[in-house]
């Protein structure tokens, strides 16, 4: 809780040149800065639009999330009205401080299944198979759950980035969900959700990027801690509240384009624009919305769009800002006992003091943010008519086969939405405080809530990021183009219907759960209306600077170099060839680890 000044360098005091300039200070950028500055002879500059944001609350898992914090570490973009979703405008949140999304996300540490990375390799991305990516996951990781004397070969025990699971379930409904999922043909993978041998579907115990002291393990706290910045202060500079207006791209005597540096300006209006030269490379790591925006401002992107904004076309690269993908979710919602839901903190505020003491004294309790403890991965192709999973052979569990990549995820979130108005089935049940009529302090109170957030993991809808103007301070125009394909609607319908059946199994097995907000009926029309009215982003934006051949809409090659521009790379979730069917923080860190190795090898 004691604050120490984090050493940053204002724009006016930056050097004229650095070996490497990292644009952005988010999830991937912190990893890159650590790795590229390991040699004292190599100078590195990190330019972050937001602040350092390292107050005590930013380390408390629950209170540091985007939804529970003051918003100072978040940046929000409004989408254009989504024509396939009742013209709704969605708010897309990303990081706005050192550490980026890893400072405000749900802290889930999930890598995805081997089949996804193998598909990248088979598509021509050399060096990106699962076996080739595994060392980068291991390098960055300390899995606190591992036996340090006999760790699994696919896990790290000495990396900077820590993760752990909750040793015991916090919520009763977690056990009820596991039993209900098991009765629907979905096994519970107790030991290791990130093992390459685990089936690609089933009920999965979650790991969270929380350190051994119960603090959020963001990539800034893990890879750029205060002590490291002080030790490397002569050759690693962190500049915050600074905006890169564009990358300085010049054409050399041979006619080739090269990134020579960046133009940078203060968001605090304390200094004029400066040009900082990159002796070796500029690495763009500003995230899947800002990375393409900066490329477009720099004259790299679809030529016609650049001309519309009066930006000289240096490289006609149509893939920049195209192929935007996101995981869209919809949450059927239910009433459950208040004691079994996060809503007890709202209706019984005296519990907050208890939870604070539990966290400060013992590092346990709800401030560790167990909003959900498990998720369920599904392959819709295995559904029978009752939405049970029916395996036809052992190969259906093989996570190395592309046909087995999950396309639906169910995230049981221990709250309910108390604001939006959607069709309600049945009355909202009222529960006794303490759960039993014999309790001396029993009284009627509002029920708790459980949402079964049902997510389409393999969307086919593709959106765009485009400039609103040539002013770098203006937000870009973001159009995720949600639910623009029939396949996406079909998957969402199946996800909703599975969630409803899962709830029915919980109720049948004796767990007290009743309907709250559901489709008006099971017809396609009513399910679709429910989806359009209540679907939400899961903040998993990707693929706007995707790794692929230029003629296939790619922006970077398999060494993350921007096509046609020397000395310029991109390293964040925007380079994914297509969105991964998992949570994106761990894969983004692995991308940064691999990028750092490639940069060192090429320089």
UniProtKB/TrEMBL annotation:
Its cofactor is FAD. It comes from the Eukaryota. The keyword Transmembrane applies. The chain crosses the membrane at residues 356-378. Signal peptide: none annotated. Residues 95-118, 287-301 form the Glucose-methanol-choline oxidoreductase N-terminal domain. Pfam families: GMC_oxred_C (PF05199), GMC_oxred_N (PF00732). Keywords: FAD, Flavoprotein, Membrane, Transmembrane, Transmembrane helix. PANTHER family: GLUCOSE-METHANOL-CHOLINE GMC OXIDOREDUCTASE (PTHR11552), GLUCOSE-METHANOL-CHOLINE OXIDOREDUCTASE N-TERMINAL DOMAIN-CONTAINING PROTEIN (PTHR11552:SF219). Belongs to the GMC oxidoreductase family. This is GMC oxidoreductase.
